[in-house]
Amino acid sequence: MTGTLPDVLPHLDAVKEALEGADLTVYVGGTPTSAGWSPPDKFCVLYPDPGMAVRESLADERTDFESTMQITCAGGDVERVLWVAGRVRWALAFGITVDGRSCWLPEDLGGPPVARDDDVTPPVYFVPVQYRVCSTPA
Fold first, then answer.
1. How far is CA 15 from the centre of its chain?
2. Would you tell me how many other CB atoms lie within 10 Å of the CB of residue 117?
3. How far apart (Å, rounded) are the C-alpha atoms in residues 15 and 106?
4. Which pTM value belongs to this model?
5. What are the tens digits of pLDDT across the range 85-107?
6. DSSP class per residue in 1-40
7. Cα-based distances in Å from 96 to 1, 13, 91, 130
8. Whole-angstrom distance, CA of residue 84 vs CA of residue 99
9. Across all residues in the chain, what is the average pLDDT?
């Protein structure tokens, strides 16, 4: 194998940067657990999968990359959650940039209806949306 294997971390950083560029508060892998932390009125949590190196040809060069990024949009009411989901969609509609890679526009895979988490105080509304992120060597 002569190509360079792709890495999920630069793709994660690019998605996070795009979301923060849309004025969203972004956490990765969960919300803070420190005592006294209370959720903002609207935010999102990014849950990436590790991705996979995909064959670019029958020569088994695994230099293409594919990952699913779940972005859980959250807020104090349904309207805030839908506002966050709209900002996520807007942020990713313009694509992401990863050095040394040509990135496809993230593919919006949708998500379930908005739900309410009553296990936290105050309750938080949320909706997970998923995006497929793919890239090839530049």
1. 6
2. 12
3. 9
4. 0.91
5. 999 999 999 999 999 999 999 99
6. --SPPP-HHHHHHHHHHHHHHTT--EEESS---STT----
7. 27, 9, 9, 15
8. 27
9. 92
Q: Are 15 and 101 in contact (CB under 8 A)?
A: no
Kindly list the domain boundaries of the chain, sorted by start residue. 8-137
Closest listed residue to residue 137, CA positions, set 94, 92, 107, 104 = 104
The two most distant CA atoms of the chain are separated, in Å, by: 55
**CATH code matching the domain that covers 8-137, chosen among 3.30.450.20, 3.90.550.10, 3.30.428.10, 3.30.2000.30:** 3.30.2000.30
**32 φ, ψ (degrees, to nearest 5):** -55, 150
What pairing do the DSSP bridges indicate for beta strands 64-75 and 52-54? antiparallel
Query: Measured between alpha carbons, how far is 124 from 118 in angstroms, rounded to an integer?
Result: 7
pLDDT in tens, 34-62: 877 888 889 999 999 999 998 877 777 88
What one-character DSSP code corresponds to residue 76? S
Nearest to 1 by CA among 48, 72, 55, 60: 60
